[in-house]
Task: structure prediction
Amino acid sequence: MSQQGYVAAPPYSQSQPGIGGFSAGFGPSNSSLHYGHYGDPNSSYSAPQPGVSKSTVPFGSSTPVGPPPPGTHQFSQTNFQNGPSTPGQQPHRFQGPPPPSNTGSSYPPYSHQSQPAYPNTASTSSTTQLANQLNSMQINSYVSCSGPGTAPSSCMSSGHPASLQGPQLLPPTQQQMALPPGSQGPPPANSVNGLCAQPSLPPMARQDGIPGPVAPNPNLQQLPGQPPGPGYHPQQANYGPQMAGSQLSYPGAFPGGPAQLPGPQQKKLDPDSIPSPIQVIENDKASRGGQIYATNTRGQVPPLVTTDCVIQDQGHASPRYIRCTTYCFPSSSDMAKQARIPLAAVIQPFAIVPPNETPLYVVNHGETGPIRCNRCKAYMCPFMQFIEGGRRYQCGFCNCVNDVPPFFFQHLDHIGRRVDHYERPELSLGSYEYVATLDYCRNNKPPKPPAYIFMIDVSYRNINSGLVKLICDELKTLLDKLPREEQEESSAIRVGFVTYNKVLHFFNVKSSLAQPQMMVVSDVGEVFVPLLDGFLVNFQESRSVVINLLDQIPEMFADTNESETIFAPVIQAGMEALKAAECAGKLFIFHSSLPTAEAPGKLRNRDDKKLLNTDKEKTLFQPQVNSYEALARDCVANGCCVNLFLFPNQYVDVASVGLVTMCTGGTLYKYNNFQLDADSPQFLSDLRKDIEKKTGFDAIMRVRTSTGFRATDFFGAIYMNNTTDVEMAAVDCDKAVTVEFKHDDKLNEDSGALIQCAVLYTSISGQRRLRIHNIGLNCSSQLADVYKTCETDALINFFAKSAFKAILSQPLKMVREILVNQTAHMLACYRKTCASPSAVSQLILPDAMKVLPVYMNCLLKSCVLVGRPEIPTDERAYQRQLVTSMGVADTQLFFYPQLLPLHSLDLKSDTIPAAVRCSEERLSEGGAFLLADGLRVFLWLGVSAPPELIQGLFNVPSFAHISTEATSLPDLDNPFSKKLKSILEHIQSQKPYTMKLTIVKQREQSEMFFRQFLVEDKSIYGGASYVDFLCCVHKEICQLLS
Ligand SMILES: [Zn+2]
Result:
């Protein structure tokens, strides 16, 4: 195959106006009317008026179901998130379109020469897999809750054996299970609070199957919206010793093996009989793991995010880049409203691909730039249909017929496909990059390489704790690891240094200097940059001056007694420095305290536990002062991304100080009560990973869709000035934007629902590029097709992000109610429209949503959605911010942690043990377990854990000798230690945050904190157990169906 095909030297003299990469897609406002609609620009989708909140309706529907009052289903987006869309204030970026002019450099086209061609190996295995999957979706899971004809309101009443009926109505292929009558039902739907804290059967009753009245456990009956009852004494940062005794009875070894569905006569609820996330994960691994997944079929459901496989791009973007909540959209908006399944895509545009998968090809059309549809500005992609012998093409998004530019002309083969189809990434691949022309650059000038500015809080506490010295020492080696393009020898990224307390210190580290020079800016009200030349430098050139500076900084401030700090002026200073240097970049801010010094962005401690569970609780998640919002807007407009490393030992108002980070695509890290010895490894690992991360700078993302639907809402570490341009000062490999779609017309089942995501960005070497991801989904007028192709992991990602956004504007209680209500609604609609006829009392779950209730319950129990005085407000704001930019794999793990048994390890094998369900029942006194959620990892040890295991891991003779102080394990030369280290390494790999290890001993105080990660159990904060939540959802479904 000729690689030359990608050079495609354009016949510049013939280039036609309107075809070159004019910047309409990212351009000024006069072109924006073309996006997303093809008729009257005012018809349905106009930019919001200043000051008017956009109604986003993630949970909204005109179908009046459930308790929340009409109108309140709609979450409204606040200005806080996206800022006022003030006409005239939009930064005029990427101005155009001027006539094409010479580009400064020519980039190697199609740069991955070593990659194998991608022949059309329409993999039979993947087709088979799909067929198998579709077949298996016919199997439903049933939970019988009450008998046929039982009124929904009494569906949950306990002690009626007659209510355990229904299995005889089941088709033979369907499975059913019974909930014990003693397992109490939820309250009436109109009092569901989203947490359904029902008393559940005590373990004894569960085991012997005796139904009957339940002795309510006062500890577990607590509703989150109410003051703590007598059984629970909230204590500050202390999870209550009273729970450590009688509560901690483990019923012995966990019952491994696949979940079993009991037969019709079953009268007790075996925890194994309700759908198990572990089983779903393991089944998918067994059927699809280790295989090649080719993306050659529209609407194909990919393997689960937890399944390891090799992905081959054959025309649709890899699921590493895009995952959808369903791979078949309902064809009409009425159907969509009926089912209320969110239609969304989780897009992680810079996701890391493993070494055994093909990296993205780069297409370079020289000065002509990318080929785009004249009308909708979509980029050339596999969805364009070539016609008239190859002279024209029809756009798959807007159906406009466009001329093929002469340089791009190619003949068609006997099936109407261009003969160079497989030689051009933009014709045959789901994902690829374009080299952008000057029209796509700020001020039509090629961008400069980005810069990293390190800004260190040198107030008393940071100096005294040794943190400043730690940072400076680490930077000396880290600066050699700045990211670079593969073909380049050294990084093009320039670096700069600032320290601050109440004032700012800039440093001149020009290579010609013998000593670094410090310049103090004490007017923090109006920050200016005191030097341009010598502030941002190439580390290799200025190495000796920079090292000298990093040696001096800890000494320079050694005697400081300044305890007050500023914060907003620090960001302002970094942003102004990047602006003055005319480049994009990242700030790395290392900060410890609430910024109380007199300056813009000054904050006071406004944390108030009395606001919990009131309508004002939402204010705790909003910034305290407006200046951060304006600062965020300025940062985005100047391509300034803010990474924030917080080291608080008290309230620092994460909701305020984290806002700019959130809006600029930055990452927030938080190390509570940072202790140099215990916490350095975690912090340094985070810092290292962040500095080395592949990142796109000064990015703007546009999501285009085929006719009939459009992107209506966006969730992520993003900023939006209008309704279509997703701005990110930077976007790294871990950041995902979740996009919700809504119908604006009927969808065509033949042409499907096509999505193109284009991210314009500046690379680490300063190239302006476009990264294009395309995916095609099916459409159907049968809701069964929609339910069949749902992906629960993506659904939970969407629900989490939309709920976490909604809490800015709505009471948390209402947000939780909406989540419960929508879960019930989706399942009720399935029952009504798709399932075979059966008793009303049966809970029927579509196969693809089998574990939606358990995951939804985990989301509902998240500390972000549950206000409890024991949970620090900053922790909630922090987790809210983290989840907002997470991809599907990260939210899956975060909401349903991985629990790995260690006592039964096969020490000879390399494999990771299969996880068990996150429940206390799976723990055993004689066992040891690892639990990880992506932020933390716990090593839990049973009181009778095998001595050889304890000796092997800790080098101590017994359980009693284990210290829980350690945050790492000793390096020991034995199989146990090596195996555990390798497991820890494995679960840490590809995770955005370094997980700090906590050692937990059974029946000790620290176990109470650990227990809240056993997400199938009733939570110490009042969240329902999985079983209780299932009953609660069932109850709601019964009401909806009646
Ligand atoms: Zn078009």
About this structure: The CA atoms of residues 601 and 626 lie 8 Å apart. The chain has 24 helices and 31 strands.
